[in-house]
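Lab notes, practical 5.
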Amino acid sequence: MDPHSKYLSADERREVTVEAVVELASSQNPSEITTAAIARHMNLTQGALFRHFPNKEAIWEAVMKWVVEHLLQRIDHSVQGITSPLAAMEAMFMSHIEFVADYPGVPRMMFGELQRAEATPAKQLVQLLIRRYGERLQRLIENGKACGELSPFLDSEAATMLFIGTIQGLVMQSMLAGEVAHIRRDAPGVFAIYCRGIRKVS
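Output from the prediction step:
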């Protein structure tokens, strides 16, 4: 979709605005992204931008809605047709890693929203994403325990937190290294260690 087209519908204009913010966040601190910067990136005036969003908070809310929808869609697609809960967990893990590698600005925006003291709509959407993500993961873990792939004594809640925390750790390491590609390289080995901790011992 050409963001510079004069003939985009209102929905299309909102969509390319969200995509512009995600792109900008991949190369700069999200807290420093102004509406002027967004408009400049899209070759628009701020007035044109505000015809589709009343303020910056509304833009951020739209961005977080996009993140929720696209990340959950990606992980749901990744596990389709996989009968092994453990294999499904690996597919979910790797698809999340690929999402981060494709959109490196997303974790920066999520971390930024979670650090805000006020309960903004964008922050609430990040919390909703984490909750829905955790629910999907806990179902897989419980299925894994039921079918004998995972330890019957496994604390499902703790395993869920560790899974999410492991991805967050990989994200932070890639940020520190300044090279997002590292996350793809390191993820398989890290998941293998996680897997050894939760798998049922024969």
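Observations recorded by the TA: The radius of gyration is 19 Å. The chain has a mean pLDDT of 90.
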